[in-house]
Write a structure and sequence with these properties.
Blueprint: H1 3-6, E1 7-12, E2 17-22, H2 28-42, E3 48-53, E4 58-59, E5 62-63, H3 68-81, E6 85-91, H4 95-108, E7 114-117, H5 122-133, H6 139-143
Parallel strand pairs: 2-3, 3-6, 6-7
Antiparallel strand pairs: 1-2, 4-5
Helix pairs in contact: 2-3, 3-4
């Protein structure tokens, strides 16, 4: 799968939200490219909100997590963008990913504005994430939704 299919993003200028979906495991090169896209798009927003959708990270019905190398990249990106971000919601593929996202956020300082979500009920998880951000919907996440494998 090429990068453009693995990492899909959208900028909602009206609500000041940068959202993205990770649809497949990212390589180090993919994570570096994604980080640059995130920083580039955040530069166009003032006090942005982030909506990260990692729910698609499954293989053979099992949730995946990022590799340690990719975690290091995410931690660096979070530290760089933190001054531009007021809130960040992360939709997770499972409980282990939720713990991973919280750990990365603590290490980067993003934990002050980040909340990660995991729920067996996909609609409940989205609703909680949207409420945290103060939005009613998101074009990218709503258009490319999914059923969470059980």
């Amino acid at each position: 799968m090429n990068f453009e299919d693995k990492f899909i993003y959208h900028v909602d200028r009206e609500n000041g939200v940068l959202s993205w979906q990770v649809r497949e495991m990212l390589t180090v090169e993919d994570a570096l490219k994604a980080g640059e896209l995130i920083k580039l798009n955040l530069a166009t927003l003032d006090q942005a909100k982030l909506l990260v959708d990692n729910r698609f990270m499954h293989k053979n019905g099992r949730p995946l997590v990022f590799t340690p190398e990719v975690n290091t990249i995410w931690e660096g990106v979070q530290g760089e963008v933190l001054p531009k971000v007021t809130k960040c919601s992360v939709l997770c593929s499972g409980a282990i990913m939720k713990m991973q996202m919280d750990r990365i956020a603590r290490a980067s300082g993003m934990i002050e504005v980040l909340k990660s979500f995991w729920n067996d009920d996909n609609d409940t998880m989205k609703k909680e994430a949207y409420q945290f951000l103060g939005i009613a919907s998101n074009e990218l996440v709503d258009a490319h939704s999914m059923s969470v494998p059980s």
